[in-house]
Design a protein that fits this description.
heterodimer; A: 300 residues; disordered N terminus; B: alpha/beta; D-Maltodextrin-Binding Protein, domain 2; 14 helices; 11 strands; 17% strand; globular
């Protein structure tokens, strides 16, 4: 079964109705918002990243590339690598946990999907900081988890999970799992069950059904989910501090440290921009490879 | 669904009433005196002046501030910060409108150099004369030209005497493998390096790269024993028994004592940092006169005594110490005993050496 043989889910004849000119004025508030609160600060950061730090903080406007050279220091590269590692582990775990849930929800009758999606969303009604503290109370030595495990006779002495890298991953997976489930369930919903049945009918193995039918057809959801989990995990700073006990530094902690403790805004800006550009580059390379792959398959 | 003609005025009235009620509720919550207080203030005359007070998140005692509001007939708006660096970053990024701010000793020096502070009108702050002898003529502002010490104390070890039998009178206790992952350190690079430096017999203000490198190695060897670096929740960690030894500010340890009586406090023999959070007026303060009056009020001996009893941090007024209940007055975590003073050291800004500390700290964290 070649996934490329599947008819595109959006018929070619579909065209958006032209937008009347005056209606585009409605975009203005959003554009003004983005311009004022995204592009202007970004431009400021870009400018500051080429300046240098005053002895007592503040910004001295002497143009230099020193901040960018400094980002390449092995010490800071190590922070980057550690963050990428923790964010990757988080993404893989979210995918492993989220895919079955998303698949299950998407295959439910429509009227029962609502309640499940609501359950996925409900945690968002509570502030993330408060939910993180709840985790701290659950994971600590005399906390709920250890009491339950000890009560069941599974452990002799309390498990020391809180304030480890594992606790960081638990916190990140917990926090970002909904971002994986929501786009994935939308993608699975668009996957016609008949295609999976057809694969079974053609004696495809379980793996073949998964890898050659389900995964290719839900790829947009997979990419969206992984991106939505990976990027915020990479920049997380609250979870490593609160659940990791500030024993390690992720890139978000380093940026926070440069701005608030070291009072080195220029270096902080440079790290933040390098982080942003590398994430954008990664995405762009992926999308380009993806498009090339599709073109190749379609042409061949 | 669309309301019929006869219905819509009623809907409008309903809507207006509801929003008015909502506004009332919001106002009731926002103004501390409630609606009646607000109304009576409006009827009595023009709008009251508003003083903006920017202080540490655990320093703003509602009762103390409300008493000032009633006494003077003004409104005090309180904003809080969590660290000196956060305070400076906020002021440098243009947050304005604050009148009275509470930076620590070394930050006063930086703010003076940054020309952020207004000169104090000491004639209007007579309580400055009641400040402890020891807290007068401090190196960062010897004549109280810009600042007056307000709350002060030491950094030491809070420990659970039920777990740690002998008082840990040396910082080396924080390197004791018996307490592996039962130790918390402040998440503050200068304070943590200060501990390592004192154990090496150096000043907490060392600037020599070789000395800082040795302190870094010392801290790296401690890393596996440390459960967490935190400046916020070690009070709970001590109280719940999560850690047996906590590097921390005296007042915070004193609060843990209230929750778990076996908690004690010690200032190690190698010496420790002493600090004072000071009252200052910003150069840009809109209400300088009111600010001087507020500072004098906070330094009043009765107000200061009440502040100490509520916050468990010592106030700088020496007459207030007599008024404070004995259980607080005699607590070494709140008022450092006379015997420790010759081994206490003030932390100063290390200028460009700060880069060395930043880097070394990042290396310890990545260990």
């Amino acid at each position: 079964m070649n996934p490329d043989a599947v008819p595109p889910d959006r018929p070619e004849s579909f065209r958006a109705a032209p937008v009347p000119r005056r209606s585009s004025l409605l975009l203005l508030p959003a554009l003004a918002w983005l311009g004022l609160f995204f592009f202007v600060p970004l431009a400021l950061m870009l400018a500051i990243s080429f300046a240098s730090r005053g002895t007592y903080g503040g910004v001295v406007w002497t143009l230099s590339l020193a901040n960018y050279a400094n980002v390449l220091d092995p010490l800071y590269v190590k922070v980057f690598l550690r963050s990428v590692l923790l964010a990757s582990v988080t993404t893989v775990l979210c995918l492993a946990l989220g895919f079955p849930i998303a698949y299950y929800i998407a295959r439910l009758p429509a009227r029962r999907q609502g309640i499940w999606l609501l359950l996925v969303m409900i945690p968002f009604w509570t502030n993330f900081l408060i939910r993180t503290y709840a985790w701290i109370f659950m994971l600590r030595t005399e906390g709920l988890m250890n009491q339950v495990l000890a009560g069941l006779g599974l452990i002799g002495s309390p498990v020391d999970v809180l304030y480890t890298e594992m606790a960081i991953v638990i916190g990140l997976v917990y926090g970002y799992l909904p971002f994986m489930i929501l786009p994935l369930s939308a993608a699975v919903e668009r996957l016609p069950p008949s295609l999976v049945e057809a694969a079974w009918d053609l004696y495809a193995s379980r793996w073949a059904v998964l890898w050659r039918v389900i995964v290719p057809l839900t790829k947009p959801g997979l990419v969206a989910g992984c991106t939505l989990v990976f990027i915020p995990s990479l920049g997380a700073f609250m979870t490593p501090d609160l659940m990791g006990g500030a024993r390690t530094m992720m890139i978000g902690n380093l940026i926070q440290h440069e701005f608030l403790v070291a009072r080195d805004w220029p270096f902080g800006s440079a790290i933040a921009l390098v982080l942003m550009v590398s994430v954008l580059l990664g995405l762009a390379i992926y999308l380009r490879a993806e498009r090339a792959g599709t073109r190749l398959a379609a042409g061949g | 669904m669309s309301p019929s003609k006869s219905q819509w005025p009623w809907k409008l009235v309903q809507g207006l009433l509801l929003s008015a009620l909502g506004l009332l509720v919001v106002y009731q919550q926002r103004s501390d005196d409630g609606l009646m207080g607000w109304l009576s203030a409006r009827l009595a005359g023009g709008p009251p002046a508003t003083l903006h007070y920017f202080t540490w998140s655990d320093y703003a005692d509602k009762d103390v501030i409300q008493a000032f509001e009633r006494e003077v007939g003004v409104k005090v708006v309180v904003d809080t910060f969590g660290s000196n660096e956060e305070l400076l970053a906020k002021l440098q990024s243009g947050a304005g409108g604050y009148d009275v701010v509470v930076p620590s000793d070394f930050m006063v020096a930086i703010m003076v150099k940054q020309d952020l502070l207004a000169e104090l009108d000491l004639d209007r702050i007579p309580n400055v004369r009641l400040v402890f002898e020891r807290l007068q003529h401090l190196p960062f502002d010897p004549d109280n030209q810009y600042s007056i010490p307000y709350l002060w104390g030491t950094v030491g070890i809070g420990y659970d005497s039920a777990v740690v039998p002998a008082p840990p009178d040396s910082w080396e206790a924080l390197w004791d493998p018996r307490y592996k992952r039962k130790i918390s350190m402040l998440n503050d690079q200068r304070e943590v390096f200060g501990v390592a430096l004192r154990t090496l017999g150096q000043s907490v203000n060392a600037v020599e790269p070789a000395v800082i490198a040795r302190a870094k190695a010392k801290l790296a060897s401690q890393k596996d024993l440390v459960k967490t670096y935190t400046s916020e929740n070690y009070q709970q960690l001590l109280a719940y028994g999560e850690v047996a030894l906590a590097h921390g500010w005296g007042g915070t340890v004193a609060r843990a004592m209230a929750e778990r009586p076996s908690i004690k406090y010690v200032i190690p023999k190698e010496g420790a940092t002493v600090w004072a959070d000071c009252l200052v007026v910003l150069k840009t303060a809109p209400h300088k006169d009111l600010a001087m009056r507020f500072i004098n009020y906070l330094l009043d001996r009765n107000v200061a005594a009440r502040t100490t009893e509520r916050l468990l941090f010592a106030t700088s007024n020496r007459e207030a110490q007599v008024l404070v209940a004995a259980q607080y007055r005699d607590n070494p975590a709140i008022y450092p005993p006379d015997s420790v003073f010759d081994r206490l050291e003030w932390m100063t800004d290390v200028g460009e050496a700060a880069r060395l500390y930043d880097r070394a700290w990042t290396e310890v964290k990545l260990q």
